[in-house]
């Protein structure tokens, strides 16, 4: 009996030891599974989403045009996205903010492809560690293999421009004309090790609909005159407080402006032409007017208009001449009747 009790105790101890030894690998597998699942999702609660709702562009609009712009952060209009260069407490610029969110795996960064277009698909999600390696950004591993990047190693001072994609569209359901940002790409300006030449590296694309609720939480200074004046990053893009030049549009030939324009002057003219097209569409949306056409296109119509104008003048002259003749004849008849003597017949009484 005593022997059987000892065997039972020994067996129980062995089973407990085996269970204890099996726990760490199991916990590691669970954590790895959780890590894999959360890498491709934005950890935003439903309450947070309801507090910062975003309006996506409808897909069944009757008219839409996509424009790509480049925002130069050295310009005063875009300085709100650049300063402060290094984080000062809770104050940070746009790149520092989104960089922290990417490293913490709170938002997804999508690879920048050679064609320059954005593809917001799961297979195109950028691995944060690979991104740090590609751009030679120093990092360390913390607890649970978390990535740690010190504030001095964040290359926010080298991000001197952004690519953004805008969608202009007319929603026939609400009869409204809208303009909204749909994608953002930070561009790294890095000087070569042995040359003074600066090379631009588009880093990754961000889906604006995914990051808009988080951008609404971060404020930036909006005025150099009043340092207390501030707005959220989401308001900054929603109100179109930025200034950028067009460098590409979605077109049938899939070409950027510098690919079909010969020189900088022609690029500038093309940018002006595209801006005018957008403004004309908006201004003529509810007040349609006859569009101005080129002489080469409207030559026949111009000749036709001239002929019609001459015909109308001729008809009007004939009408005026006829009216003068009628008036003259009537006046002459009245004068003749007034000049003739009157004859009175008096009847005699019998």
In short:
The protein is an alpha+beta fold and 350 residues long. The chain is 41% helix and 19% strand. The strands form 3 sheets. Strands 1, 2, 5, 6, 7, 8 and 11 form a 7-stranded antiparallel β-sheet that branches. The chain has a two-stranded antiparallel sheet with strand order 3-4.
Describe this protein's structure.
- Helix content is 41%, strand content 19%.
- The protein has 350 residues and is an alpha+beta fold.
- The protein has a domain at 60-252.
- The longest helix is centred in the last third of the chain and has 45 residues, at 295-339.
- The relative contact order is 0.11.
Write a concise keyword list for the protein shown above.
350 residues, alpha+beta, two-stranded antiparallel ribbon, 9 helices, 41% helix
Oligomerization state of this entry? single chain
Strand percentage, roughly? 15-25%
Helix and strand sequence: HHEHEHEEEEEEHEEHEHHH
Mean pLDDT: 79
- Total beta strands: 11
Topology:
Layout: H1 2-39, H2 46-51, E1 63-72, H3 94-103, E2 110-111, H4 128-134, E3 140-141, E4 147-148, E5 159-171, E6 176-191, E7 198-202, E8 204-207, H5 208-215, E9 219-221, E10 230-232, H6 233-238, E11 244-249, H7 257-260, H8 264-283, H9 295-339
Antiparallel strand pairs: 1-5, 1-11, 2-8, 3-4, 5-6, 6-7, 6-8, 9-10
């Amino acid at each position: 009996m005593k022997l059987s009790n000892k065997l039972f105790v020994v067996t129980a101890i062995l089973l407990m030891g085996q269970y204890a030894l099996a726990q760490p690998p199991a916990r590691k597998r669970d954590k790895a599974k959780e890590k894999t699942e959360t890498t491709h999702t934005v950890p935003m609660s439903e309450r947070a989403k309801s507090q910062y709702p975003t309006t996506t562009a409808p897909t069944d609009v009757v008219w839409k045009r996509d424009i790509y712009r480049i925002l130069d952060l050295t310009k005063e209009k875009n300085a709100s996205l650049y300063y402060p260069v290094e984080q000062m407490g809770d104050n940070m610029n746009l790149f520092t903010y989104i960089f922290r969110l990417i490293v913490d795996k709170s938002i997804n960064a999508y690879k920048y492809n050679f064609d320059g277009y954005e593809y917001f698909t799961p297979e195109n999600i950028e691995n944060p560690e690979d991104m740090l390696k590609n751009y030679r950004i120093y990092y360390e591993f913390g607890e649970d293999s978390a990535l740690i990047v010190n504030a001095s190693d964040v290359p926010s001072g080298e991000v001197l421009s952004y690519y953004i994609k805008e969608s202009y569209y007319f929603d026939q359901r609400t009869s409204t004309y809208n303009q909204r940002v749909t994608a953002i790409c930070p561009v790294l300006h890095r000087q070569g090790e042995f040359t003074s030449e600066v090379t631009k590296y588009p880093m990754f694309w961000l889906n604006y609909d995914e990051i808009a609720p988080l951008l609404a939480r971060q404020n930036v200074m909006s005025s150099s005159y009043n340092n207390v004046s501030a707005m959220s990053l989401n308001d900054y893009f929603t109100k179109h407080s930025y200034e950028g030049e067009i460098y590409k549009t979605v077109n049938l030939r899939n070409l950027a402006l510098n690919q079909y324009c010969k020189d900088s002057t022609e690029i500038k003219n093309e940018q002006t032409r595209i801006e005018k097209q957008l403004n004309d569409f908006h201004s003529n949306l509810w007040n349609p007017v006859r569009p101005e056409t080129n002489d080469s296109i409207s030559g026949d119509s111009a000749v036709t208009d001239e002929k019609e104008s001459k015909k109308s003048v001729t008809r009007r002259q004939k009408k005026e001449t006829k009216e003068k003749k009628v008036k003259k004849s009537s006046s002459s008849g009245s004068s003749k009747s007034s000049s003739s003597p009157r004859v009175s017949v008096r009847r005699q009484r019998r």
